[in-house]
Amino acid sequence: MKLKGISLCFLAFCLAVVAMAQTKGLTNTTKSPYAKMHSVDLSDVTWTKGFWAERFDVCKDTMLYNMWRIFDNPELSHAYRNFEIAAGLKEGEHKDPPFFDGDMYKWLEGAAAVYAITKDPKLDALMDRFIETIRLSQREDGYIHTATIVADKNNPGAKKGFEERLHFETYNMGHLMTAGCVHYRVTGKRTLLDLAIKTTDFLYNFYKTATNELARSAICPSHYMGVVEMYRTTRDPKYLELSKSLIDIRGMVENGTDDNQDRIPFREQKVAMGHAVRANYLYAGVADVYLETGDKTLLECLHPIWNDVTYRKMYITGGCGALYDGTSPDGTAYEPDSIQKVHQSYGRAYQLPQETAHNETCANIGNMLWNFRMLQLSADSKYADIMEQTYYNSILSGISLDGKKYFYTNALSHSHEFPYQMRWGNFRQEYITCFCCPPNTVRTIAEANSSAYATSHKGVYCNLYGGNTLRTKAIDGSDIHITQTTDYPWDGNVTLKVEKAPKGNYSIFLRVPEWSESATVKVNGKEENIKIVPGSYAEVNRQWKNGDMVELIMPFEARLVEANPMVEESRNQIAVMYGPLVYCMEAKDLPEGVSIYDILIPTDIKLTPKAVTIENSKVVMLTGKARLLDRNKWTGKLYRKVNTSVKDIEISLIPYYAWNNRGNCDMSVWLRAAN
Fold first, then answer.
1. In this predicted model, which residue has the larger pLDDT, 409 or 554?
2. Count of CB atoms situated within 10 Å of the CB of 282
3. Is 124 helix (H, G, I), strand (E, B) or coil?
4. Quick one: average pLDDT of 590-604?
């Protein structure tokens, strides 16, 4: 019997190893019982030509290594030096914010995603170097947080874990978990995964014995996503147990805050509230738990919260978190017993300022991560539409085209006449003291290929368009090989060449964005008689032959967009979109002395696309004829008689994500509408 027990244990171990070896996606939902589509492996999609190939090249050649240079320079950032001190390799004090550990784990995850495509030995060696330093830093019980470990080394017993809520320990640990899963799936090495297992085990034991007050340490809950991904990778049931309990304890703690979404239980929350990064990470993690458990009480919160964000609190760019500072009653659906300050906050419905918009890049990334999981649990293309909206507009805006400068916040307007210096600066910077957004942006760009396609038992879904090759497996294990050719987002024609496909009828699902009102689909040159509805997937089902050509044709033209009139800051103003891209006007493209705020956009304006190059990147500019108010100085005036003297002026608009790449100047997304 003993031998039999050993054999059964060994068999279970082998099966777990096989399961782990077969799943290499960014999120491994292949065994998630409530997933309706599944990620492809991290190495299955390679950008070949065009927009995303260019962005990926800048990421692998510049973004990653430039960021490591910053982390590895203690005169600029103490991020890596903190690990070296914790590991006993250097001496000194911990410096910089306590969440820098998590920022380095984000970098590591991004590096692993790039390595999945490039197999660059230099990058592999750099990851190994960092992972070994992490190993030496980690306590034997699995706890790792350099701020605490360094303090304890320098003064034993003076500092304990989880003493301070704002130390972001679980946030850091969550990013270690996701990095460990991605690194393992890409390299096959267990070095980082084993450290993540020790940390997740520590967290499991901690929450089993922690007081309610200690359980409040879930600041910025990346560990919700991390713990679920650890469960998917290892199939250890206690990790799924932990993920469920993390939701249950919200609202059960003393002195909870709206800032951290734990003042009331999660299942009582029906609108977005509090700190937008923490909120979006929470919603993404809850969606992960639903994918594994099917707990409908979670969807009963996620759906109304999503509606609240998408239809009342989200910017046209997909940005989230309108306010630098807010107060709790303004964004909530209950009556708290006291008013609390909430920073980087979701505010009231329709409260979307432009010049003072916060829109932290991490919140925008959190919005994408949340919608990515909502897409997987529903196969509803409206979530892919939001993913695309955030990718192109409020995520890429967080980094310069050359990959070396960063935005922490993403305002929709800037004027040199505005009499305040915004807290995080008005223009991109090479280094930000709160450095959470830059590595988050880099890992998100590195992993964009993982969002391009998904599979289900029905077929393959095309979620994001860009020149690429897909080499993956269908659910039944048969090969799917597709080559995609397109100049998207500058052009709406997408061509898929089917090189291998499963036998029998198989579907290719083409996402038709909500804004695409006259799309058509052709197969081998002949238009398909299928139902095409904007904001849904167009399904092409047939027995595929090698060499079959599928064309999705989405006519592109500039379109003028207005906001709901409840958005008071945007009343009587117009924004311009072209395909998925939001455009803006930069003063750089106006005659000297002309103000953006004196430009009037006719509702019948004809805008013509024009390809230009900015910072060695292809960009399509829109040009046309607008109206210019005769400028009278506002000096010493708050109000004045309406000026009606106007003349024609040639204008140019550029994609919002590309602004501030030609020097510092005024900019605005929303422009005054002409009568």
1. 554
2. 30
3. helix
4. 94
- Cα R_g (the chain), whole angstroms: 25
641 burial level (CB within 10 Å; 0-12, 13-18, 19+): exposed
Place of tokens 């290499």: 24
The answer to whether 145 touches 164, Cβ cutoff 8 Å, is no
Report pLDDT for 250. Answer: 81
Q: Region 298-319: what's the mean pLDDT?
A: 97
Tens digits of residue pLDDT in 122-136: 999 999 999 999 999
H or E element that contains 625: strand 617-629
Tell me the per-residue pLDDT of 437-476, one tens digit each, with 9 for 90 and over.
899 999 999 999 999 999 999 999 999 999 999 999 999 9
460: helix, strand or coil: strand
Distance from C-alpha of 31 to C-alpha of 400, rounded to nearest angstrom? 38
Ramachandran region of residue 251, left (φ > 0), alpha (ψ -120 to 50) or beta? left
Residue 18 class from Cβ within 10 Å (0-12 exposed, 13-18 middle, 19+ buried)? exposed
Q: What are phi and psi of 167, to 5 degrees?
A: -90, -5
Task: Report d(CA 671, CA 575) in Å as an integer.
Answer: 6
pLDDT in tens, 163-218: 777 678 999 999 999 999 999 999 999 999 999 999 999 999 988 887 766 666 67
Question: Within a 13 Å sphere around the CA of 386, how many CA atoms are in the beta-carbon half?
Answer: 25
SS3 311: helix
Q: Residue 336: its pLDDT value, please?
A: 75
The beta strands (E) that lie in 226-340 are given as 274-275, 323-327
Place of tokens 């399509």: 620
Cα distances (angstroms) measured from residue 228 to each of 28, 172, 223, 286, 289: 10, 15, 8, 10, 7
**Do 32 and 292 touch, CB atoms closer than 8 A?**
yes
Q: Tokens for 289, please give them.
A: 């738990």
The chain-wide mean pLDDT, for the chain, equals: 91
CA separation (Å) from 137 to 85, 116, 159, 330, 644? Answer: 8, 26, 16, 43, 68
pTM: 0.94
